């Protein structure tokens, strides 16, 4: 593999790994703040226990997310320095806002929340929880604004051959970002919802026969957590569907090749059918060996809200892209083996086609498991079969897979561009991925790739160990030991620890 391919693998591995922690942190931060709000308003000890247990898991996940997220910033200087020089005047602004505003607030109020249980007034401590949760979402907003600019560059002008930002409001108000933000947040809530359902369902089933005087004392905590997760997951999936439709219409306007690749649509259709499943080699642009099962005219509706819109196919778009952006890479030695070679404007079709379906499919499965859990636990019921906890625990992985597949589709679908051209924007405002990589040797990139991969594997083991430890410990593992002469789990002991 050459430097470009290795650099892409490195960025992909570190980014996907980091994004496993991000949605869980965002979703759990809001849910934990909501649990604490319920406790402050009602005084019900059940909500206090929920806050302590899920808050502990939130802290473990947040810590790992911070460690892995720092590397993301280094990536731009390590392997993508040419990209950083080209877009730094624009890209740096939202990243700086994320660091100076969102992350600073996030870290400050999280610290106050951790150490303020018995030091701050109830409502002040609760406000810290909400400040942390809102800052987490603000952090996502700034990061997504930067990423959306790469998908649809706006608010810039060319100065000395480089984009210079002329409106921060245009960058932050980019319609691509405004569609991506609610979609990403809904994905975060789907992840945390499945996490609640899986963990709470396992504890609930594990304690199904315990008397109330023993392990069954916390049964209401697990039931409330499971049902909260189930409802949040259903609502989150509905929001994902609505915002995904909005993104699809923007994709039709801004990145038509990505839409065609998502459907492996080789030839222009009017009306265009939506492919449910393909059998054969979708990588072949002529589609001769592919059989698809489709819904007639649905792709036209997803593209333009009607059932007759023409959707261009990959073969037809290649000529349009060549006419606009050139047929060959510049004959520049910095481009390595791609210097002077023809530009391949077609993304990896198997990745985009199946990634798009994995995003939708696994998201739907996660919501479906949540709905099933709600039905099976209605009116105090609890299935006694072994498959029940196994299904719910396995369901934790489904929205994680769906989120990752969605990001892989989004990023690989815009290739060969690292900054995709805006069809109605500044002429010449784009950058090929091959032009963005640093001037490094293959050995140097191999070294950093292997080092970071091994490091991340080690951090993954630590995360799983800590998560498993605190999950298995249950409520008892996050509450203080009872004072002398008090019964374990008594209200007085628990609440005196809090304040």
Give the gist of this structure.
This protein has 499 residues and is mainly α.
Structure description:
The protein is mainly alpha-helical and 499 residues long. 67% of the residues lie in helices and 5% in strands. The strands form three sheets. Strands 1-2 form a two-stranded antiparallel sheet. It has a two-stranded antiparallel sheet with strand order 3-4. A hairpin with a 2-residue loop joins β1 and β2. α1 packs across α6, α2 runs parallel beside α7 and α2 runs antiparallel to α15. It is globular, with a radius of gyration of 25 Å. It starts with a helix and ends with a helix. 41% of the residues are buried. It is found in: Cell membrane. This is Cytochrome ubiquinol oxidase subunit I. Keywords: Cell membrane, Electron transport, Heme, Iron, Membrane, Metal-binding, Transmembrane, Transmembrane helix, Transport.
Keywords, separated by commas or semicolons:
single chain, 499 residues, mainly alpha, two-stranded antiparallel sheet, disordered C terminus
DSSP strand (E) fraction? under 5%
Biggest β-sheet description: 2 strands, antiparallel
Q: Treating each run of at least 4 consecutive H or I residues as one helix, how many helices?
A: 16
* Order of strands across the main sheet: 1-2
Shape: globular
Strands, total number: 6
Quaternary assembly: single chain
- Overall pLDDT metric: 87
* Helix and strand composition category: mainly alpha
Give the helix proportion (percent range). Answer: 55-70%
What is the alpha-carbon Rg in Å? 25 Å
